[in-house]
Amino acid sequence: MRILIADDSIVSRHLLEATLRKWGYEVVVANDGTQAWNILQGENPPRLAILDWVMPGLTGPEVCSRVRETSKNRELDYTYIVLLSSKSQREDLIEGLEAGADDYLTKPFDQHELKVRLRAGTRIIDLQRELVSAREELRDQATKDFLTRIWNRSSILDVLTRELARASREKRSVGVVLADLDRFKSVNDTYGHFAGDAVLREFTRRMTAAMRPYDSIGRYGGEEFLIILPGCDERCTANQSERLRAALANEPMLIGDVAHVVTCSFGATSWRPDANSTADELIHLADDALYMAKHQGRNCVAVLTPPAAEAAAQPK
What mean pLDDT comes out for the span 282-305? Predict the structure, then answer.
């Protein structure tokens, strides 16, 4: 593990560095408080730090205070800090801990005591990483579809809401597409649900590969998917939908070791700055377009245009 030592005394610094390297630490050295602060704010900083109390530039407690203040916005990265000082009064200990230090040692330090305290710091850093990893895994489970690993229904609807708000601010369009696999029930009935799951995963793989990096796709339900295309007007949405349709239909898919052409129907629409369509209205319009695509023979793209704001406001 990497560890920062900051001490303006050459003798003390070299002694501490030699001791830590002997214990297997990768040591990063700072000659004063300002240099220590810059290192801790840099890219991939050490997560363990031993700071001398009195240093030029910034004192050890001042570095602690700055680290704790900035860490409020960097919850994923905790730095365990040990203050090292010749001061041994109770008031000094309280001052150091209140500044944000995790531990405190007086000079000259006892090597065994330092080793034990650093071991405790390492455990805390490791536990913090495990907690962050567990939290990210839970967040992923809450926002992603279990089978396909794309956005789930609630998450893709959140994406649509955010993109519509952004489009409204920036006066640009957003494409909204509903895609539904054709005759998917027959795949499950003929080859079983495991084969159906494989088709869904391959479908999402092909869609994701054919989409732009800033497009989004989520599982809307069963074999139906909602696709968000930022910056796409009606023509762009139709073109992108056709690319996605071709990405699926132009290459057979293995189902039960047999090559089958799997197709999908796409219903598309586009939010425009001159139309005050809500997310629900756009999805309803895309669903109507999808219904049209199914009745036009499947494996095609149908597009419907939202009414302009003025027309929508007219009494019927």
Answer: 96
